[in-house]
Amino acid sequence: MTPADLPGVVAVAAEVHPGYPEDEAVFAERLALFPAGCLSLADPAGLAGYVVSHPWPLFQAPELNSRLGTIPATADAYYIHDLALLARAQGSGAASRVVALLEGEARKAGLRRMALIAVNRSAGFWQRHGFRLTHDASLDRKLASYDDDARYMTREL
């Protein structure tokens, strides 16, 4: 992902995750803080998807549509903030390739766990990629701010 991709990222996010709006500044900050974890998928029609990820403390998922300021030194997990693909890119295998790439980034960063909040009934996809539902009462309020379907998931590496 590059700064030039950001308007397309916002457009994809608005189409794929309309119930979870985030400002372009949020994506720009994540790209600046951890560029290796921000990838975009282009096809002949333009931007077809993206992923935003970075190290973060386990069980402390960032608030939706909020800036991080910095990646904490206490980060002990690799957090997948958002993976979004337009319908034309779904089923292409791109999401599975991205998960493998992110696992590599997590290992390079010396992290032994990955984490995410699954939304839009995506828990099954993440389970197929080795993630499991993980309950931590400290996240209940944050998950409720997404919707009733939001699930915190982790994967050991």
CATH fold name: Aminopeptidase
| Number of separate helices | 5
Could you tell me the radius of gyration in angstroms? 14 Å
The amount of beta strand, in percent, is: 25-35%
Based on secondary structure, the structural category is: alpha+beta
Provide the CATH superfamily.
Gcn5-related N-acetyltransferase (GNAT)
Q: Please identify the top-level CATH class.
A: Alpha Beta
Please tally the β strands and state the result.
6
Low-pLDDT sequence parts:
none
Overall average residue pLDDT: 94
Query: Biggest sheet: strands, sense, closure?
Result: 6 strands, mixed
Shape: globular
Explained architecture:
The chain has helices at 6-16, 24-33, 94-108, 123-128, 140-146, and strands at residues 38-43, 46-56, 77-85, 113-118, 132-133, 151-156. With 157 residues, it is α+β, with helices and mostly antiparallel strands. The protein has a single domain, classed as Aminopeptidase, CATH 3.40.630. The protein starts with 5 loop residues before the first helix and ends with a strand. The mean pLDDT is 94.
Outline the secondary-structure elements.
Blueprint lengths: L5 H11 L7 H10 L4 E6 L2 E11 L20 E9 L8 H15 L4 E6 L4 H6 L3 E2 L6 H7 L4 E6 L1
What labels describe this entry?
alpha+beta; six-stranded mixed sheet
